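Forum: Protein Structure Q&A
Topic: Joint prediction for protein chains with partners

I've read a bunch of threads here and the consensus seems to be that you should model interacting components together rather than docking separate models afterwards. I'd like to see that in practice. Below is the full input, 414 residues plus whatever partners are listed. Could one of the regulars post the assembled result?
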Amino acid sequence: MSGATFPGGPAAERPVPGVLDAAPGPGDDSVRAADGRATAITALTPIKLGQAPLLRLLLVIGARIKMLREALTKLSFIHYARWTIISGFPYNGAPQRKERLRYDYLFFETNFNGTWDEYIDAFSEVIPERMQAIWGRCVNFPGPRPVGPFKEYIHKNDLPIAHYYAAYPDATTTTVISALAVRDGLADLRARAAQVTDPEEFRRVYEAFLTDVQRDL
Amino acid sequence: MTNTSGQAYAFMATTPILPGRRAALQDYLDGLPRGEDSPLARMRTIHFARWLVLRDLVHQGPSQRRDTLQSSYLVFVSNFDGPLDRFLADLLARMGPEADAIWRNCVGYPGTEHADAFIAYLKHNQIETTAFLSAYPQATVADVREALDLRRQVTDFAISVQGADPAALRRAFLERFPAPPRSPAPSTPSPTTPESA
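Posted by a regular:
Agreed with the consensus. Here's the joint model:
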């Protein structure tokens, strides 16, 4: 990644305002932003002045009620998602300089299955109102539809990832949820199997278990 | 608690990078082995984790007043099996040298000799999560891995017993999936369980 810096001296690494290159194209970081089938997005966007408190309330409540929980269920390919409002960065003494941010920032971190494009398409198609409710409070958000400008907005603000790790990279969210259901059903079946000594009866119990989990296998 | 969803914890720490160290830090992170060989894999309680090097804020356009950062920041973001203190202690125990190689590039880093100081440093730089959602909030990494394995086993078993008579089916099932012991083993690894080779 390139970016102009002042030559020499301790200020060499200080970012130069306005000279930071635009985020690299999707191909550049696609290797790092994925691990197996798990894909990552990390978006940082300035919140419109004065709107952070309302957005915070919306997110906190949204996480507890259907608004955001349902969004996650509808977008069945998301493992974990978080929104965090950043009002400042903790101070650690010199040589760190205290930040004087003009804006609060919305940080969004997500882990999902599928391509970056599929993800943004799904947000735009399935939960556009919720997208508008959250990102509508950010500066220059173009709206979730049409999807073109929405993708440009997210892509521009998608931070490059230096290292990404996923614990079960080959499993989709749907597979994980299914597997957990199979595990529960199997535990029940194992507990019953020893007690059900009649083979025919056991076969019925076993078939019922398979029927229950057939969608999960 | 906004940092948690079920038993999962959403952690984020932003630590300012020392002047002159950003490129070296970026190189080190880029060079870390990936997948199962990532140092993060040793943790066994991390669902997802990432490091980012935040160089500056992205300007949105003419309608936005210009906002810039005084420092570059190393951002560490992770979703893991809680609680936080145990996770941070584990990080030090299982990937101390790598953690040191990474965070020594940041302002105020105390080193890894004293676990308390290391943990305090990351907690000092923690940014509290506003809203955190998980598709399976109660499942630990161990739960997920066990479940995925069992699912495979059940599929294999179901195929293998197709056409078997009921007695043979029951025998095969009991052999393959014996009744659980009276006190089931804990599904989450105990923090004091020694690491097996």
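Chain B touches chain A through 95 residues (CB under 8 Å).
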